[in-house]
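ok here's the first one, seq then struct tokens
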Amino acid sequence: MKKRVLLGMMCALLALGMKAQSDMPKVTPELEFALQLKVTLGEAFGIDNTPHGRRTVIPITGGTFEGPQIKGTIINGGADYQLNSPDGRTELEAIYCIKTDDGVYIHVRNRGIIANGKDAEGKPTFYFKAAPQFEAPADSKYGWLNNALFICSPEFRQDFKGIVLNVWRVK
């Protein structure tokens, strides 16, 4: 009797698991390339032993950006504020402004994670992704930046002193 009840419960759980899999979303969001930022950086400095960990500040000194619908320069004066934890994880928040070639200023706040770890086989892993948010004048031709989510990923180049960020709009 106990075996039958246990078998019945296992069948019911299996059926529920199959139903849960069939209820999974069938649509995967698409990404559309939005722009590439080439950000020049100043000398980083650190603040050790804060209540939250080690704080690193990296000044943003300028640069350029370009995409299919936008182009311009990065304004000197922003910074990338990073909080480093002993386990190899870094939370970042970069705050700066950009100016389009036609004179429109746009505020950028980019939050993300850098994580060094190991995979299941013990090999080193590196993860670096961020989600920039743009604040553009709503009545400008750049208003589309206000109404979408974006993700970015770095591109490391030997020929550029700074960081290159490729940004995609989530469709």
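and now the second one, same deal
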Amino acid sequence: MENLHLKNQLKNLISHPEKHSYLLAVSGGADSMVLAALFADLSAEIQNPEFRFQVAHINYKLRGKDSDLDQKTVQDFCEKNHIRFHLYEVSDKDHQPENSIQLWARELRYDFFRKIREREQLEFLVTAHHLNDQLETFIINLSKASGIHGLSGIPANDNQILRPLLQASKEEIYRFAQEHHIDFREDLSNKKNDYLRNKIRNEVVPKLLETNDHFLENFRRSSQYLNQAKDFIENQVQETENRLTVFNPDHKILSKEKLDQESDFVKFEILKKYGFAQEGEIPKIFKAENGSSFLSKDYQLTVSRDQLIFISLSKEQNIQNPIILAENDDSSEKPLIINIENRIEEIDGINNSFSWDFDAEKVRFPLYLRKQMDGDEIYPSGFSGKKKVSKFFRDEKLSILARQKIWILCDGSNSVLGIIPLRQDRRYAKDEKTKHVLKIFNDKVK
């Protein structure tokens, strides 16, 4: 059974598999128990201290005594073979939902696996997905119009998760378990058709297998071709994205005009990487007015004239944290001088050098830098009246990206003291009556 030759399958996924560490997700079913047995045999064959693996099991408590017997099967195997065993037993604190139990269970187990890997310093998570799982996933994704990425199915090596049994059929796994006397448990709930996957597994797949004695083998080859096609297409799409990219050290910026000239497929594949793949969303992006923004889970996309600017939300959250310049005014140094050189990033096209003198008695401490907020107003020096900071940005003809980088100088009452490095607020500026000067400056010149 070549497809169950673990060492060869691992070699297809990673280099030098004997020098890595693994966490096996084992449910007690035939596929995961065969996986555990294959790892135990490989460990005995290799006898290399760098090769090590442990087992993790979750008892969801959904099937009463059967769930406990699943746990016992896995635990007994680990004790017999001296394998480190990790158990998570679901309890009331896990707040099992009435609906979407599959999604809840998936999130719970992968969070459990992640914590174990981090604590035990295990490099890879290994699951026992097999060829029949791959076929079921193909059919599910086919019904969702998920494109070639979805049709290529479950990846064999993705995000530190290995699936070395993907080329093995369920029948091969059962036969291997029988020939090698490997104990396993059948999950009878898989016979119920209350989930889409179960319905496909129990009703659709058997009909397909009846049409052709070599159906599963042919699907195996087709799956391999699809994966090769996916890899080729992804490389071509990446080359196109690189060609359309306006390089920037902080954010991904694409030429809107040039991307709009590409096919709908290329637009979809590029924008999907940033989370913009909802039906009807992509045409809206290309028809949007200058300054429009779109949000995905991980990115903010801003339309700026002929550019699409992608800002990582996680990175932007770090940037948004206020920067404290002075907690209080108890310094013996008079005047109080604050140099913000190296405290903020440079902005393309804007001179960062400035020097402002304030009347220290007019401001409230602490002094800090933050990003623009809705409703911010400034009384700009050199002008009469007040102005919304957002209107000030527009009047200065600042790009969307520059606006997002600029810092606002504020005091303890959240009043705007200045827009760095462009304009000081005249209300707090030093005048002929000032006794205590506060100087804030940046001497860095690009």
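notes on #2: The chain has a mean pLDDT of 88. The first helix runs from residue 6 to 13.
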